[in-house]
Amino acid sequence: MFKKQILAAIVGMGMIFSLAGCGQTNEQSNNPTNQPAAGNNEPAQVEKLKGNVVIDGSGTVYPLMAHIAEDYMTNSQSGVSVQVGRAGSSAGFKKFIPGETDFADASRAIKDSEVEELKGKGLEMGANVMEIKLAYDGLTIVINKNNDWAKEMTDDEIVKMFTSKAVKGDDNVLWSDIRAEWPQEEIKFYGPNENHGTYEFFYETILDKKDLVSSVNLQQEYSTLVDLVAQDKNAIAFFGYGYYATNTDKLTAVKVDFGKGPVEPALNTIGEDLDYAGFTRLVYTYLNLNYAKEKPQVLDFAQFVVSPEGAAKFAADNGFAPLPEATYAEYTSALKALKQ
Fold first, then answer.
1. Does residue 57 lie within any of the structural domains?
2. What is the pLDDT of residues 38-48, one digit of tens each?
3. What does this protein do (predicted)?
4. Are residues 288 and 224 in the same domain?
5. Which of 49, 152, 310, 339 is the most exposed place for a label (fewest CB within 10 A)?
6. CB 129, CB 287: distance < 8 Å
7. What is the pLDDT of residues 270-292, one digit of tens each?
């Protein structure tokens, strides 16, 4: 079940938060891991770490990563301060590539151009940077609660209405231009701006790199998008499922017909092999492996993220469908190998 209240509390904490903050260096404490001796049933002491972990990137991934970070600092490593930002996927990579952050969250895969920029900094994907798939997200089309005509649309109608000049040369599209029985009122288009991987996924994958309607209003903050759609019955917008799921009292999600009947985005329909596959995507975090080797708290947090206590546990709470356990287990094995 989606724990709306928990998520709302996390998002409300702001762009960056830091709970622990009591350790500002990478120094480890004087309490190294003590494995129990043979025959000793006393539990092993957990290695107490200090220092910072710096993460920035996708606003879509932010609620999930912030939730994981909060739990890690509260229940696992109170001496570690995990700072999570939401500048957007592209903006996050601009900080990650020159080494300003330990992780880059992204709602789309890293681009070839960004891989080349990493090489320019002496970093190779796989050798120095690890791609970690966190969960599945469903791109969700939302409308105003008072819109009682566009609750179901085909994927072709959605693509056409958002594509520049596909309906009208001036892009001033009316609802009646999509279906004759709908109101003769202008559609107000909204979405996240170019800093966000959600914009890039929509533009590159859904619209096949065709320009969005010139009348679209693009915003940096998802909360602003929610408010704009909630206040205008002619509004329509796209963003990750999680932001819809936390605002179901303000928005309606459009059921999308991919050819087999309308499908509502939901945790049991979002997935590469499920009914909402047409608008399903992976979300990621990228780890600087050099920093993971140098800073124990960075490696420890990475292991927490892919553990059963990390993304697998909190994905559904934040509007994402978790990946198979085997996927997270592979990342755990790879990260453990860094200690050897």
1. yes
2. 445 555 567 89
3. Involved in the system for phosphate transport across the cytoplasmic membrane. Part of the ABC transporter complex PstSACB involved in phosphate import.
4. no
5. 339
6. yes
7. 999 999 999 999 999 999 999 99
pTM: predicted TM-score of the whole model, two decimal places: 0.82
CA 114 to chain centre: 18
User: Which of 237, 261, 280 marks a domain boundary?
Assistant: 280
List the one residue out of 140, 137, 139, 146 whose CA is nearest residue 175. Answer: 146
Give mean pLDDT, residues 178-183.
98
Look at residue 35 in the predicted model and tell me its pLDDT: 41
Q: In this predicted model, what pLDDT tens digit does every residue of 69-105 receive, in sequence order?
A: 999 999 999 999 999 999 999 999 999 999 999 999 9
Cα 8 off chain centre by: 15
Residues 301 and 80: beta-carbon distance below 8 Å: yes
Instruction: Using alpha carbons, select from 73, 68, 208, 191 the residue that is nearest to residue 135.
Output: 68
Query: Quick check: 252 and 140 in contact, CB under 8 A?
Result: no
Domain boundary, last residue among 240, 263, 280: 280
Encoded tokens for 128: 């120095």
Considering the domain architecture, whether residues 159 and 265 belong to the same structural domain is answered as yes
Instruction: List the structure tokens of 316.
Output: 């559904």
* Whether the predicted pLDDT of 258 surpasses 80: yes
In a domain, 29, yes or no: no
